[in-house]
Design brief:
The chain contains 11 helices and 26 strands. With 409 residues, the chain is α/β, with parallel strands linked by helices. The longest helix has 15 residues, at 288-302.
Amino acid sequence: MRYVIIGNGTAAIACIEGIRSVDTEGDITLISTESRHCYGRPLISYYLLGRVDEAHLDYRPRDFYIKNNVDAMLGVTATAIDPEGKSVTLEDGTKVPYDKLLIATGSRPFVPHADGYETVENKFTFMTYDDMKALEAKLTPEARVLVVGAGLIGLKCVEGILDRVKEVTVVDLADRIMPSVLDAEGAAMVKKVLDKKGVTFYLSDCVSAYKDNTAILRSGREIPFDIVVTAVGVRPNTDLAKGAGCDVNRGVIIDEHCETSVKDIYCAGDCSEGYDKSINAKRILALLPNASFQGRCAGINMAGGDEKFTNAIPMNAMGFFGCHELSAGAYDGECISRITEDTYKKLYVKNGKLIGFILINDFERAGIYTSLIRDEVPLDTVDFDLLIDKPQLLAFSADARKAKLARKV
């Protein structure tokens, strides 16, 4: 069996592990535009911060490809997929045959139009190792940095560079930081931490033009800068899948086996669009845990197994300067709050089930909340009053506790 994987991120690595859990002999070829050994993308900000060194960026040990008998074609770009001839064409015209194919091409930064952007000399995005190294080369103690985007990527960049430059200013069109993850109250708590660190925010605003190292905002405010980092969002890389005839919406449509509409072509990670249990609909969940689950599911099925991934939910874990946030599911229905000066807990209940939560600096046994959402546990079958304040297995019935413990074993 010949397996081909396009990509080298979380989904691709999980796919390799999924394949090898079923088939230890088949040929695996991995094709990646990036020339670096697989690495943890969330770690690039910690590299700038000085918390991890080059070696500890690795997502898997350096002998991972060798141990798993993978032909890793790094620094090579796939340009087309031929589903009838079952081959992948590379940029030099070489064709790589496959029996089963995974598309794990991820996403790319979205850079919104602003007059004069093309004239800015020191402009960067912040998604890849190469992005990070290019930015690092321009950082100086006197640099004024403008970060466009107050989402997770933009704020992780802020954390990584803040102590290495003179000042950091953040602009975002939304009225709060991390609007896709936090509600207004939670966002205000996290923003307070960043404010104390000296980060300047201009929210409910955007850059309309750049001129002579000055950003002109829609409000008329002018911000001088030396470096611009754009981190307003991403777009899924779906061109290869479209060219192969796969059904594509915003992302590549996949079924519960992570297979596309084209036989023997699978897809996983940020470029895919699968079922989100929290909203009972398909959508992109560009999250590391989701990419891992999808990649492994795809790999097992590519190797002849029968695996399904049907309980995907949005999950985010992040931290800035010692303030940590964890969230999952949907923020709808009845809201139960437990808020102090330093901690924040909101649980969302709908139709007798927990459907989402936001936690800040209060993570004790948060996995119990996640399992309640994933397993759609009726709250009248547990001691939910106990779970609100002290999540623990004692809140479940004896049979449920046995089942959960057996699952862990």
